[in-house]
Amino acid sequence: MSSKILQGNIRKINFCQFCGGPNKHEIPDGEEKVRAICTRCGKITYENPKMVVGCLIEHDKKILMCRRKIHPSYGLWTLPAGYMEIGESAAEGAIRETWEEANAEVEVQSLFAQLDIPLVGQTYMIFLAKLKNPHFSPGPESSECQLFELDDIPYDSLAFSSMLVTLNLYIEDIKVGRPKFHYGVINKRPGTSPSEIHAYTLDFHMQS
Ligand SMILES: [Zn+2]
């Protein structure tokens, strides 16, 4: 990826995270990218990709999905997933997010997919999981939670490209046998909105 794209994607961080002073946005000596540099204390506020962790929950040949009651993608369907917190592992985060969004207790089985989305600085880690008991209900961020047969997945109203890719890979695996592990890069077409979930290519796809 060219540095031009990366620079164009820099979000303005207006204030220093160390002293609260105003930042300027420049390329520091010896670096190649525009950074937020404090005009008062001189420290740089770096911004790095965020990890999104979640679960693909299999139950009776169905999968558990949640309908979002929050923005973005309000009213659209997703697998339970959210930002990993400091102090937890990816698997713990995926279990926690599932509890928060679907009131479901799950046991993580294996890592199913790691999907990088460079344009927005996110990496998704989606784990295969099983329900510890058959109980689930919408948490505060969901309006509905439902088990879907693979043929009934609400493809017309999915929340994110990452979920579309995850579900496509899963269904392809199930058709020929068992789920594998997938790594891939979701390159969103520049200039398309996050709601255009089909505007991507899946690159560097590796599976094992
Ligand atoms: Zn500062």
From TrEMBL:
Gene3D superfamilies: 2.20.70.10, Nucleoside Triphosphate Pyrophosphohydrolase (3.90.79.10). InterPro entries: NUDIX_hydrolase-like_dom_sf (IPR015797), NUDIX_hydrolase_CS (IPR020084), NUDIX_hydrolase_dom (IPR000086), Nudix_N (IPR029401). Transmembrane segments: none annotated. Coiled coil: none annotated. Residues 48-171 form the Nudix hydrolase domain. PROSITE patterns: NUDIX (PS51462), NUDIX_BOX (PS00893). Keywords: Hydrolase. This is Nudix hydrolase domain-containing protein. It comes from Solanum verrucosum. The lineage of its organism: Eukaryota, Viridiplantae, Streptophyta, Embryophyta, Tracheophyta.
